[in-house]
Amino acid sequence: MAGSVMRRVSLRNLSAHKVRLFLTIFSIVLGTCFVAGSIIFTSTISKAFTDVFDKVAPGVAVEVTPDTQQSPGVPNAVVDDLTKRKQELGIDRIVSNYTGSVTIANAQGKALQTGGAPSVGSAYVPADEALSPETSTLLPGGRAPSGPNEVVINSSAADRGDLKVGSETKVVVGQGASAPQNVTIVGLIDLPGSTSGYTSIQFAQDVASTLFSDGDHVAQVDMSAVDGVSPSELQKRVTAALPADTYKVRTGDQVRQDQKDQVNQFLTIFTGILLAFAAIGLIVGTFIIYNTFSMIVAQRNRELALLRAVGASQKQVSRSVLFEAFVVGVLGGVVGLGIGIGLAAALKAIIGSTSGLPQAPLQIGVPAILAAVFVGVVVTMVSAWVPAVRASRVPPVEAMRASMAEDSSSLAKRTVIGVFFGAAGIVAVIGGAFRTGLGPAITVGGGAAALILAVVLAAPALSRPIVGGIGRVLAAPFGKIGQLARTNAIRNPRRTAATAFALTLGLMLVAVIGTLGTSFKGTVDDAVDNGVKAEYIIGGTNNGSVPVAATEAIAKAPGVGGSVSLNFVRAQVGDESQFGYAPIGDPIGDFVNLDMRDGASDVLAGDAMFVSDKTSAEKGWNRGDVVVFTSPSGEQVPVRVDGVFADNEALQPWMMGSDAYDKLMPKSTQVSGAVFVNPAPGTDAATLWTSLEDATADYLTVQVQDREQFKSSISSQIDQMLAVLYAMLGLALVIAILGIINTLALSVVERRREIGMLRAIGMVRAQVRRSIYIESVLIAIFGALLGVVLGTGIGYALVKTLAKWGLGDPVLPWSLIVITLVAAGVVGVLAALWPAIRAARTRPLEAIADL
């Protein structure tokens, strides 16, 4: 009976204080929507990829591919043998595939953008020869390609490029096996499961063989099984018919599963990033919820004391508060789930319009619902439990004093613990900064976690001197109003610290990311300024490669005094895959600062290699050593180390001569990462620029840049990557700002009688609003200062640990720091607008009489 009475009291209390109920639910919604939205969005992307790869390799019973990626493919002789033995093995149809990356021009002559999705060239397979009619459907009005200059293209890509049957355009084969070729689109095809940015260019079989293979190999062999032979049985038969440990033989289901697994690795990282930000939102939301309930219970001390006075026990009081928390938790969780669905839909729409990721209906599954319930109910009840127990233990007579809304408990114990964690965090961060590698980076991360915990515990003690000091400067021009605002900001240090923490956490992460970003850009600038002497750097767009044919056209362009192409080298040394460069053209020392530490000459011989200081130390490759590389075909190529050069990011980790390069890299795989160009004597920059633009005009993915433009393009790419992180952090910061609004609004409710008294003795509405503005600004700047100091310190140490991977000295983002602190003041004013207006509308007599 008593429990039923207390529940009715709780429900009536909720309905009687609608503003307080709204603010409480709002705080829960803030902590719920981000978590639920992140889970729904990642589930949707995962489902979209699953649907796509369920349609991969239609009709394929068994697929044969080389066992290693470096292999040139499956030899034609093997394909011929399998074809002859079709009946014996149980093969119905067999199809050879030639594939490679290509770029096609749109109707305006520019490269057709894919948004990150693949752009693939392959051989056209007629429907009557395909393993499944679902492989491709040639649309009416088109026909199959039959000549060297005819292609078909998937209809979705044609729509994006404003291309149609009969359109004349250009195609560049990614590996540069041939010069750009003029082609005519003779057909459009529908492809199952193609993503929004996917591009498929299909050539006649003999043309694809020339473009995408060395003539002796195919990329893969697909086959279907005759009736009565299962895919697994055909797999066993084909495996037995091939040399052991040479080829990978998989069923169609295994092919589809392997591709799903590869995507799931990406999705795991992608999901981890999103859930990391969701965790940030959860932490921020939890503090907002806890702060809200602490204030609400403090405001209700007199009310709860009256319940104790009329016979309610401590357990009944605490249970009534927890019941209220359960009710508002359920409401907040449901609303937060709804808003989370909206956030996921918005992210899905943005991603769909700006990338090649596939699309699928929103996946509102059990994990998202459970997350909303957990944050809405469990976190809310846990957050309410501590203040509920604290309120139930206050003697009734003492609780009925009007001053109980104030927090007068000692901060000494938690401050001591906070100092301990702070000292441990500082030691870990500084200790990690003096070493490089993954281990020290993890140490810095552990130190960062300790520092965050230290802020949680010690921030209330810090708030009084820091906020008080800031207030003496910023609030001084406002006289008594400023002094009152400063007093309000520091008199309840727990509330001030909890309100500021949300902003502290968000801005700490902004400062860490900003420090990493400016350091990356500083490393690029130093590498170009100190390592590169060339006037022009020609590379591929979107971090792509430069076709070999383009490098030859550049070398022959009028006004070019010298050029060198840095070609990619990928080969095996023992069991390890190695990556480096081969400078092809004029001596590399004419274009970069090649500081030889150990070498008889700075001219690289055709059968030799130079290694950097770092590589020499890590791998033990010294002058005079012979390194044996293994080519994709299995040929072993010994290369002599002729010298060691000072670390230069433009040349890391090693480079080899042209003769060794030609032995290791088949012509079909040769491609350049960048071309360095110097002008001929007497050639001005504008003339050479025009000449290079003309020479590369047909190569759709090639761009000409001078040194400053090259640095700017790299910086813009870094900014684009950081923009995604900043956008996600922006949501956390919005939650933090809304949390400040929520806390200030509750603070106004708490101080209703106080504000009424001030109004009664002559304070006008504008002065009330001004005092709330100043108080909010002081709290926001306090949170921003803590966040910036922590973030820059952690970011600085993290950059030092990444030196092993080529990152240079840390560069602090001073402009971001200044902007952040100024923005914190603006945020403080904006966050205080509604609470200040509400406070100014307080009626003096009603407020004074309010119990």
Tell me what you see in this structure.
- The protein is α+β, with helices and mostly antiparallel strands.
- 57% of the residues lie in helices and 16% in strands.
- It has 25 helices and 23 strands.
- The protein has a 6-stranded mixed beta barrel.
- The longest helix is centred in the first third of the chain and has 48 residues, at 252-299.
- The protein is globular, with a radius of gyration of 34 Å.
- It is a multi-pass membrane protein.
- It is found in: Cell membrane.
- InterPro entries: ABC3_permease_C, MacB_PCD, Macrolide_Exporter_MacB.
Quickly describe the structure.
The chain is of the alpha+beta class.
Which terms would index this structure?
23 strands, alpha+beta, six-stranded mixed barrel, single chain, 25 helices, 4 domains, five-stranded antiparallel β-sheet
